[in-house]
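MODEL INPUT / OUTPUT PAIR
PAIR INDEX: 1
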Amino acid sequence: MSKNLRIALIFGGFVTAVGVTLYPLYFYPLTHVDEYKEMQKLNRAGFKQEDVQPTGLKVWSDPFKSK
């Protein structure tokens, strides 16, 4: 096996491993937005944000946002 082919296979294997790892974490939710919105509706059904989030917190403002 030539040296260039071996390097290409190692690099290709690494890219494949990263792709297989990232697919269920990033790309699947990105392509199935409606399914995840339905899950969020079910999971957040009994909660009020005011009860969970403490009041009086300062909200970070965007310094680059024009006023």
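PAIR INDEX: 2
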Amino acid sequence: MTAPDTGRTQPEVERVAVTDEAAALLRELRETHGPLMFHQSGGCCDGSSPMCYPDGEFRVGGADVHLGDLDIGEAGSVPVWMSRSQFELWSHTHLTIDVVDGRGSGFSLEAPTGRRFLIRSRLMSDEEAERL
């Protein structure tokens, strides 16, 4: 049995979200650094952490996938990118950017704050997977 056509389109499947706490830190970082972006590259150590940059400072291209934009309130949105090779492994997951106490290493903008961004993931539901 198929669902009736109501003339409504299904909402796009959300691939990425942000916690309230991470959104608050992003608003603070935006005040200092201007528009922001995330890139998730994969790899070992901090290479697997989401890296926050001033928007455009990390050059994305054909080897990257735009996962979506994080709504951080009145401060706007923050695009999230992932390397295509990493996306091939994580395409069936929903990612949430969160923040925890502790200092990561690397060039991510939150490093001096004593906090670090991290990814929490879950498998997409059957319904989400069908709508992809």
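PAIR 2 NOTE: The radius of gyration is 16 Å.
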